[in-house]
């Protein structure tokens, strides 16, 4: 968000105040649609249904379905997955992916990530399925993160691309946001010190939510290859 703020200040040639508004998973799309907020950059994926009333930026992150399990638990095949009780939030892409992968899977619906982790700790379920990056944050928030694993390791069952959500039909604003996101992506790929430090702080081995670097590099390189490069003078 700070990079977007800086880009808007440059474009308008005046200081811009960044005002943070608290939203939740139930109301953030409505807030954007009704222009109560100008942008929301959370774990939001593109869908055609959402596109009917809001716009999306280019993707700024990629994750996908993985499973949080007790350390030592392995799931090496779909057949083995079917023997496990897997918790997942209802009406999510994670649920859809699991049901497509194994239609007769023992899916146990949970109310939230915290509810899913609680049921996992209590032994009610054998694994909790969700977006890998969110599972990393959940694992690292536990008092004993070393007791949990995320599987498959360094691999995603499917890709889940996150994008910022914007009010509909404001192409100038979307262009500013897209330019800012691409600047971050390009900075990461060319190992610009500012953005390398930013990503290391969040997703590096000692970061807030460690995440496989190879997945990010491959995905970001694909986005960068599909767009015109930003002049290096912008860094």
From TrEMBL:
Gene Ontology biological process: amino acid transport
Domain of life: Bacteria
One term under GO cellular component: extracellular region
Keywords associated with the record: Signal, Transport
Keyword Transport: yes
InterPro entries: Bact_solute-bind_prot3, Solute-binding_3/MltF_N
SUPFAM superfamilies tied to this protein: Periplasmic binding protein-like II
Short name of any one Pfam family annotated for the protein: SBP_bac_3
Domain Solute-binding protein family 3/N-terminal, residue spans: 3-206
Family under the similarity heading: Belongs to the bacterial solute-binding protein 3 family.
Name of this protein: Solute-binding protein family 3/N-terminal domain-containing protein
């Amino acid at each position: 968000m700070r990079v977007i703020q800086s880009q808007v200040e440059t474009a308008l040639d005046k200081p811009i105040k960044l005002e943070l508004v608290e939203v939740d998973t139930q109301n953030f799309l409505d807030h954007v649609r009704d222009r109560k907020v100008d942008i929301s950059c959370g774990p939001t994926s593109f869908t055609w249904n959402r596109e009917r009333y809001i716009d999306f930026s280019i993707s700024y992150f990629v994750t996908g379905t993985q499973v949080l399990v007790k350390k030592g638990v392995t799931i090496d095949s779909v057949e083995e997955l079917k023997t496990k009780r897997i918790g997942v939030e209802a009406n999510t892409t994670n649920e859809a992916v699991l049901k497509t992968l194994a239609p007769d899977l023992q899916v146990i619906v949970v109310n939230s990530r915290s509810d899913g982790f609680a049921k996992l700790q209590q032994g009610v379920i054998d694994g909790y399925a969700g977006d890998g990056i969110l599972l990393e944050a959940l694992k690292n928030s536990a008092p004993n993160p070393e007791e949990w694993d995320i599987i498959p390791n360094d691999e995603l069952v499917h890709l889940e691309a996150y994008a910022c959500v914007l009010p509909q039909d404001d192409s100038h604003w979307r262009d500013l946001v897209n330019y800012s996101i691409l600047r971050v992506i390009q900075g990461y790929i060319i190992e610009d010190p500012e953005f390398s430090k930013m990503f290391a702080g969040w997703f590096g081995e000692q970061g807030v939510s460690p995440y496989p670097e190879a997945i990010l590099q491959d995905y970001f390189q694909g986005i960068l290859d599909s767009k015109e490069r930003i002049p290096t003078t912008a860094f």
